[in-house]
Design a protein that fits this description.
Layout (H helix, E strand, L loop, with lengths): L1 H6 L4 E2 L6 E2 L5 E5 L4 H12 L8 E3 L4 E3 L2 H14 L2 E5 H10 L3
Antiparallel strand pairs: 1-2, 3-6, 4-5
């Protein structure tokens, strides 16, 4: 995700609303397709794991996998699978609310 942020030339435009995003401080990066949940679901299926079986470390703001090897595998899988789109903060909040969290 950092590489995506770093390659943008500002201003950029929100992929949903079309509003101008003048700087990286006003940018929210969103998983376009597949969604983050879809990426997680497919990764777990490939690894024959259930979400409940995964130990995590952190709190609601910052969470990481306790198993370092599994974490690296997920990072690599996510890097190969994710596609991103630029959104304004408000558009990202509204999109998340429509999905129910």
């Amino acid at each position: 995700m950092r590489a995506y942020r770093d390659c943008l030339n500002y201003p950029v435009y929100c992929a949903i609303s079309g509003d101008t995003i003048p700087s990286p401080y006003e940018l929210h990066v969103d998983h376009k397709s597949p969604t983050f949940l879809e990426i997680v679901t497919k990764f777990l299926k490939l690894k024959l794991l259930n979400l409940e079986d995964i130990a995590i470390i952190g709190n609601g703001e910052s969470v990481k996998l306790a198993d370092i090897n599994l974490s690296k595998e997920f990072y690599d899988y996510h890097s190969k699978t994710a596609t991103y789109q630029p959104l304004t903060k408000q558009t990202h909040i509204d999109k998340t609310k429509k999905k129910g969290g």
